[in-house]
């Protein structure tokens, strides 16, 4: 049952991207918009609480971010990091080649960027908590861009291992209250330690660039995005996807 569920999901996404790329692109933009809502909530909570209790600020930030994945799963759209997991099952089962996935992943990645960058741009331009938000974003991005290559890569792997586990829970559970609660707890597991989600980082970098422009150095942003994206791909498609495939694949008769 699990194998059929995952392989069907992967094939459906591939066929939609191949046969109706515009629709798939729109679904990817919408996923970016939904994740942008979680970004707005998380950063606003963090800014409001940080002067009162730094631990509470971090927990609130991490606890709120999961609402983005919940909305994506419940309302339906295409998130790049989740697709790294589901679309590998037809590849592992030799119904598709890995190269067949590249155009679909590219459409999804760009669409997610458009959606989350747009809503984060509008959020900053709204002027909410202007000075406090700018100060907080400058601190966050300065820390993100001061990275060790290997550590960042591993943070990307661990992040999408966790995100895809949450997405798998969302596919399996039918009761929406349980689904929402468990998914948000699992997502909190990657946010609180500071693991790196490439699409969420698009939102963070977009907000900060909109707010501060060239006031901070952006020289490392492209390498940061590359390493976190590669880590996300491995975390979802290999670290989680491969052992699950080997565990649930149909047995040869």
From TrEMBL:
One of its GO terms (molecular function) is formate transmembrane transporter activity. InterPro entries: Aquaporin-like (IPR023271), For/NO2_transpt (IPR000292), For/NO2_transpt_CS (IPR024002). One of its GO terms (cellular component) is plasma membrane. It is a multi-pass membrane protein. It is found in: Membrane. Gene3D superfamilies: Glycerol uptake facilitator protein. The chain crosses the membrane at residues 21-47, 59-80, 101-124, 152-169, 181-200, 220-248. Keywords: Membrane, Transmembrane, Transmembrane helix. PANTHER family: FORMATE TRANSPORTER-RELATED, NITRITE TRANSPORTER NIRC. Belongs to the FNT transporter (TC 1.A.16) family. This is Formate/nitrite transporter. It comes from Faecalibacillus intestinalis.
